[in-house]
Amino acid sequence: MIVLEDVWKRFPSGPLVAQGITAVFPAGRATALLGRNGAGKSSLLAMIAGTLRPDAGQVVRHGRVSWPVGFAGAFHPDLTGAQNTRFVARVYGVDSRGLLGFVRDVSGLGDAMRQPVRRYSSGMRARLGFAISMGIPFDMYLVDEVTAVGDAAFRRETSALLKARLGQAGAIVVSHAPAQLRGLCTAGAVLEAGRLRMFDDLEEAIAVYQGGGVLRASTHPTPSARGQAGRGASAGGR
Ligand SMILES: Nc1ncnc2c1ncn2[C@@H]1O[C@H](COP(=O)(O)OP(=O)(O)OP(=O)(O)O)[C@@H](O)[C@H]1O
């Protein structure tokens, strides 16, 4: 379970991405996190993961929470894919040989596992990050547009694996693709103008997200979206 308590965040000379967000993401439930480009979804995931500090308020994590899956910035560039995998295994206290075998199978990186990560393309790094995160039993997976990575075959495999994992754990999944969210999540949350509205029913969240005009490419909230954001109180756990 993840509890957000009056979380505030504004980037210097940037937008207000969290305006006193109070919410509960329950254990064992997969919640879709929806919002227009630049609403602050990735920033919220980073605060939940603990890699970005809120300006005020706090994030309480119960159980083991993943890093944002698909984010592979934390690997040591001079270590190989295999060495990075063993390192993560030690940090999380899982069997390194078992994790390495899993990552070899799932990542499709082959011989590149023996190359330093600095030589990887961003797609290869994301494959490594995805495979490692799926190989560690987290209680809550944070997923950020993971299927934007790799070719069609890899996307199919990652979707299947993710679905299997989410059957046993909770998750917060960021995606702009309602079809993908319907396949993975049951609940939803809509982030708009720094406020988060929680919905037990994913379809309700998708309807609000689409109805608020937030699917548009514009980075400015429409008057109707602004009105909704103003009315929508940041929700507590329901
Ligand atoms: N480190 C940073 N410093 C300054 N501004 C930042 C930083 N990180 C993000 N931002 C800004 O904060 C806003 C929210 O960014 P974020 O990536 O969290 O949005 P998002 O909802 O995930 O967007 P998208 O759907 O496009 O991925 C954007 O305007 C972005 O430019």
Can you give me a brief rundown of this structure?
The chain has 238 residues and is α/β, with parallel strands linked by helices.
What do you see in this structure?
- With 238 residues, the chain is α/β, with parallel strands linked by helices.
- Helices cover 37% and strands 24% of the residues.
- It is built from eight helices and nine strands.
- The strands form two sheets. It has a six-stranded mixed β-sheet with strand order 5-6-7-3-8-9, with helices on both faces. Strands 2-1-4 form a three-stranded antiparallel β-sheet, covered by helices on one side.
- Helix 2 crosses helix 3 (96-107) and helix 3 packs across helix 4.
- The longest helix has 15 residues, at 152-166.
- The two termini are 13 Å apart.
- The chain binds adenosine-5'-triphosphate.
- Residues 11, 14-15, 17, 35, 37-43 line the site of adenosine-5'-triphosphate (ATP).
Tell me the layout of helices and strands.
Elements: E1 2-10, E2 16-25, E3 30-34, H1 41-49, E4 56-61, E5 65-69, H2 81-92, H3 96-107, H4 122-135, E6 140-144, H5 152-166, E7 170-174, H6 178-184, E8 187-192, E9 195-199, H7 202-211, H8 223-231
Parallel strand pairs: 3-7, 3-8, 5-6, 6-7
Antiparallel strand pairs: 1-2, 1-4, 8-9
Helix pairs in contact: 2-3, 3-4
Bound molecules: adenosine-5'-triphosphate.
